[in-house]
Amino acid sequence: RFEKIWLIFGVGALLLFLTVLGVSAFYLGNQPPSCLVTIDPEQVDTTAPFNKPGLNKVEGKDWDYELVYVASAFSYNPVKVEVPLGSTVKVMATTKDVIHGFEVTGTNINMMLEPGYVSEYVAKFDKAGEFLIICNEYCGAGHHMMSSRIEVV
Ligand code: CUA
Questions:
Q1: Are 2 and 72 in a shared domain?
Q2: Ligand 1 in reach of 135 Cβ (< 6 A)
Q3: Range of 72's domain?
Q4: Is the CB of 100 under 6 A from ligand 1?
Q5: Which terminus, N or C, of the chain has the lesser number of Cβ atoms within 10 Å?
């Protein structure tokens, strides 16, 4: 009789976990909150701010810098940037071709770059060191070679 109670408890817990997993996957999969601004993928090189990838100081905003990336198979532009320690940075990225990932290891920055959309994330860099940017969406033969570096100094 005790076995029966445990069995019900076990099955109940399993169903609860599956529900939570399903709901979170559904929301995350359908609503990437970072992809709200659109861009013509063929005009990336001539559309601001993507015509000048890299770190730009800004005034009068909630962040100190804008860090602009253009991804394409199989690299990120820029390949390396230096970010001043303690600064708040708005990372803005897009892709010229296929879907790429944009994960900055050791931080909360983990975005999906979709053609036609701008992905944005505001982060504070309060830890010194080198942070690797990697592509975590399979994008073709050179997928594993895609990387860039942020040096926080
Ligand atoms: Cu770009 Cu994988």
A1: no
A2: yes
A3: 35-152
A4: yes
A5: N
